[in-house]
Design brief:
The complex is a heterodimer of chains A (107) and B (118). Chain A has 107 residues and is an all-beta fold. Chain A has strands spanning 4-7, 10-13, 19-25, 33-38, 45-49, 53-54, 62-67, 70-75, 85-90, 97-98, 102-106. In chain A, the strands form 2 sheets. In chain A, strands 2, 4, 5, 6, 9, 10 and 11 form a 7-stranded mixed beta sheet that branches. The N and C termini of chain B lie far apart (40 Å). Chain B is mainly beta. In chain B, a hairpin with a 2-residue loop joins strand 9 (92-101) and strand 10. In chain B, strands 2, 4, 5, 6, 9, 10 and 11 form a 7-stranded mixed beta sheet that branches. In chain B, strands 1-3-8-7 form a 4-stranded antiparallel beta sheet, with no helix packed on it. The chains are: A mainly beta (107), B mainly beta (118). The interface between A and B is medium-sized, with 24 and 19 residues.
Chain lengths: 107, 118
């Protein structure tokens, strides 16, 4: 199975600044990469699919990039509601696998 | 509005069984594959199983293969997960998830908690 590795494990950023989260696949997943936001007590929320396409209703400050094995989620002008855990997930073939998550915390 | 409501979680004995259900509404149930994804305490998300729209194809994580069975009843708009031979490591919050295609999950339930302990 493909191993997804996210870095850093924890990222401390001030509101209004930019956050850059990384995800690496152990082998190429083409652009079959999704990003999710997960807050305590809530269901995960799809942010990005196809590596760079925003899901319905997702704010433009969220953007994804990359292909193959290296991917990035960028969040511009961080809002208070953006502080959460973020997961990447490939869906290139079975089984789909998630990264271990990056916790985005307020600096 | 898509709604997914899981139920059936609770305390299970090691080696025992539990059956989870996910009642769906707000979309044409029989047209979509559905999945279960879990999150163990303090851990990340783990895909568990997927079933295609008509129930003819099923997929499982190696960690549950041979112990869990996914199924669906399209007449009742309900997804199931039969969990047998439970292990402590199956303790997790189990989410029902609807993909927008393949295994990109754009709708999730709130989850049902399964605790495996003697």
């Amino acid at each position: 199975e493909i191993v997804m590795t996210q870095s850093p494990a924890t990222l401390s950023v001030s509101p209004g600044e930019r956050a850059t989260l990384s995800c690496r696949a152990s082998q190429s997943v083409s652009s079959d990469l999704a990003w999710y936001q997960h807050k305590p007590g809530q269901a995960p929320r799809l942010l990005i699919h196809g590596a760079s396409s925003r899901a319905t209703g997702i704010a433009a400050r969220f953007s994804g990039s990359g292909s193959g094995t290296e991917f990035t989620l960028t969040i511009n002008s961080l809002q208070s509601e953006d502080f959460a855990v973020y997961y990447c997930q490939h869906y290139n073939y079975w089984p789909p696998t998630f990264g271990q998550g990056t916790k985005l915390e307020i600096k | 509005e898509v709604q997914l409501l899981e139920s059936g979680g609770g305390l299970g004995q090691p080696g025992g069984s539990l059956r989870l259900s996910c009642a769906a509404s707000g979309f044409t149930f029989s047209s979509y594959a559905l999945s279960w994804v879990r999150q163990a305490p303090g851990k990340g998300l783990e895909w568990v199983s997927t079933i295609n729209s008509i129930g003819g194809s099923t997929y499982y994580a190696d960690s549950v293969k041979g112990r869990f069975t996914i199924s669906r009843d399209n007449s009742k708009n309900t997804l199931y997960l039969q969990m047998d031979s439970l292990r402590a490591e199956d303790t997790a919050l189990y989410y029902c998830a609807k993909p927008r295609g393949a295994t990109v999950f754009d709708n999730w339930g709130q989850g049902t908690l399964v605790t495996v302990s003697s």
